[in-house]
Amino acid sequence: MAEINRYRPEDRRAVDALYRRVFGNDAAEASRLRWDWQYRRNPNNPGGEPEIWIAREGPAIIGQYATMPVQLSVGGQQVQASWGMDVMVAPERQRQGLGEVLFRTWDRNVGASLGLGLSESSYKLFQKLRWPDVGPLPCLVKPLTRRAFRRPNWPMPVNRLVSALTVPLVMLVSRARPVGAEVRMLQRFDDSFTELWERLAPRFDFAVRRDAAYLNWKYVSAPHVRYAIAALRRDARTIGYAVYRHLHEPRGRVTLLADFLVDPDDPSDLGTLLRWVDREARQADSDKIRTFAMHAGFRRVLRRTGYFQVKSTVQFVTKVNGIEVQPAFYENTDRWHVTLGDSDQDR
Q1: Which strand (E) or helix (H) includes residue 237?
Q2: Within 13 Å and on the Cβ side, how many CA atoms surround 65?
């Protein structure tokens, strides 16, 4: 029987070797690049040590469940939570229940456990454990050019036909509109963003705490991706932000709106930030803008500004342990604020 306990500094070399065996050299090198940032420098890391659970058999490390600690606001109460990431089991020990033991150990030791972008095997395990299933994280896309509807698995003649047929729709929804408010590009988040979070937190039933320390760690200090940050201001006060980046994908260029925060009760604030992101996407020659948003009010604003909800494969599960919640809590997620930037899906 394997022994499960916390990661120790002397485990690093063995964990790296296991990662290489399970995921391959390229993935291991990418993990090594972001490891210190991801696990040691997280401002929500209790005790300053990585929140990683290790499965041991004697001196050998045969499994890992790595997590990303966050502070979670649940119904006005703050809970120590973590996102599950990078689960791995040695090839010769797979399909023997070790992954389930690691999952259960993690869940017992955190106030709320969170999972986003799950693999098929992980999702099936959560179902087996009867975790609340809140469904996939809704995905919305705004087309900016006729290339927006191309798909890499379609033949080029089909892509060209679809592009031609959708030109009127693209011209309608992608019209440029003035921003109409003060938006500033930032290099870092200052204390005004902590104040913004404190003002807005009571308006969400479920959301990761987005204070300045967390935002700077997540979106400024990340070594593997580079984000642009736009802050919305009114009367010399910060009232919102958007975090985005431009990337190439098969058959086109995409602007990913990874995270945003505004007053959910004031649709004009999000509309202003979306018009800014529209302008930035056009300047970057993007074919479309993609974002993920769980909050029903935010999705309404996105749809009014030209976004279409499309099928999402980003599964989202959560289980709150630190405070008592009723089953209905997981069924009504209209006031939950979850975006793709919340976990580690944008790599």
Answers
A1: strand 237-249
A2: 24
Q: How far apart are CA 188 and CA 217, in angstroms?
A: 10
Tokens matching residue 111 = 């106030």
Q: Which residue has the tokens 């979070």?
A: 197
| % of the chain surpassing 90 pLDDT | 71
* H helix intervals, 98-176: 98-108, 120-128, 156-165, 167-173
Which tokens hold the place of 155?
A: 């033949």
Cα separation, 289 vs 274, in Å, equals 10
Residue 54 near residue 61 (C-beta atoms within 8 A):
yes
Tokens of 200: 């807005």
pLDDT of residue 75: 92
CA 254 to CA 245: how far, in whole Å? 8
Asked whether the beta carbons of 143 and 289 are under 8 A apart, the reply is: no
The rounded distance, in Å, linking the Cα atoms of 315 and 297 is 20
How far CA 310 is from CA of 98, 110, 137, 139, 291, in Å, comes to 35, 33, 11, 6, 10
The string of pLDDT tens digits covering residues 262-308 is 999 999 999 999 999 999 999 999 999 999 999 999 999 999 999 99
Task: State the pTM of this model.
Answer: 0.89
Q: What pLDDT is recorded for position 169?
A: 58
Helices of type H across 202-326: 212-215, 267-283, 296-304
Q: Measured on CA atoms in the order 179, 176, 142, 304, is the torsion positive or negative?
A: positive
In sequence order, which residues have a C-beta less than 8 Å from that of residue 148 and are 6 or more positions away? 141, 166, 170, 252, 287, 288
